[in-house]
């Protein structure tokens, strides 16, 4: 049974490496074993990195992804490799955050999706980017992200 469910996964159980760019990265999905249940799955990437497209300097973010699965779950190793593919990718904070959301929405077609990108200050200004697919479905518990707003040294 497990072999039948998990066929076509090229990264799980292999020595896969992160792609050179997010566009080249392969996101994979697996069947949701509980499509009849409304629940929230969360992924947190507290050390997300990308490159400023203007200065070439590294940018850092704390990314929180919440979604209510429908028929599929994102395969976590493919998600980790996808997020790693941004390390040498030059893009603004808004572009990175929304691109992640678009790719996951396309792959999963979830009942609900939310992404929070808490970006560390660049030029003294933190840029936080948030998006959700719509209202939280009735009965779905979506906890706070748990990330404090930037307060500098205060």
TrEMBL record:
**Function as written in the Swiss-Prot or TrEMBL entry:** Catalyzes the NADPH-dependent reduction of 7-cyano-7-deazaguanine (preQ0) to 7-aminomethyl-7-deazaguanine (preQ1).
Q: Please name the InterPro entries in this protein's record.
A: GTP-CH-I_C/QueF, NADPH_dep_7-cyano-7-deazaG_red, QueF, QueF_type1
Keywords from the named record: Cytoplasm, NADP, Oxidoreductase, Queuosine biosynthesis
Where is this protein chiefly located?
A: cytoplasm
> What name goes with this protein?
NADPH-dependent 7-cyano-7-deazaguanine reductase
Metabolic or biological pathway: tRNA modification; tRNA-queuosine biosynthesis
The top EC class, named as a word, is oxidoreductase
Pfam families xrefs: QueF (PF14489)
Signal peptide, first to last residue: none
Task: Enumerate the residue ranges of region (Disordered).
Answer: 7-28
Please give the family membership noted in the entry. Answer: Belongs to the GTP cyclohydrolase I family. QueF type 1 subfamily.
Give one GO term, molecular function aspect. preQ1 synthase activity
Note the PANTHER family from the entry: NADPH-DEPENDENT 7-CYANO-7-DEAZAGUANINE REDUCTASE
Organism's domain of life? Bacteria
Q: Where in the cell is it found?
A: Cytoplasm
- Return the EC number: 1.7.1.13
Keyword Oxidoreductase recorded = yes
Q: Which reaction does it catalyse?
A: 7-aminomethyl-7-carbaguanine + 2 NADP(+) = 7-cyano-7-carbaguanine + 2 NADPH + 3 H(+)
Q: Which residues form the active site?
A: 52 (thioimide intermediate), 59 (proton donor)
Residues noted as binding substrate in the record, renumbered to the chain: 74-76, 93-94
């Amino acid at each position: 049974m497990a072999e039948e469910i998990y066929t076509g996964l090229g990264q799980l159980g292999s020595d896969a490496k992160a792609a050179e760019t997010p566009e080249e990265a392969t996101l994979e999905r697996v069947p949701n074993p509980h499509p009849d249940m409304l629940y929230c799955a969360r992924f947190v990437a507290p050390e997300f990195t990308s490159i400023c497209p203007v200065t070439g300097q590294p940018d850092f973010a704390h990314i929180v992804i919440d979604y209510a699965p429908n028929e599929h779950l994102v395969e976590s190793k493919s998600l980790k490799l996808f997020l790693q593919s941004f390390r040498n990718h030059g893009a603004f904070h808004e572009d990175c955050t929304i691109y992640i959301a678009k790719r996951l929405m396309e792959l999963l077609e979830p009942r609900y999706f939310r992404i929070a990108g808490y970006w560390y200050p660049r030029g003294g200004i933190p840029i936080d980017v948030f998006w959700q697919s719509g209202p939280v479905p009735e009965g779905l518990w979506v906890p706070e992200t748990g990330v404090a707003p930037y307060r500098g040294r205060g």
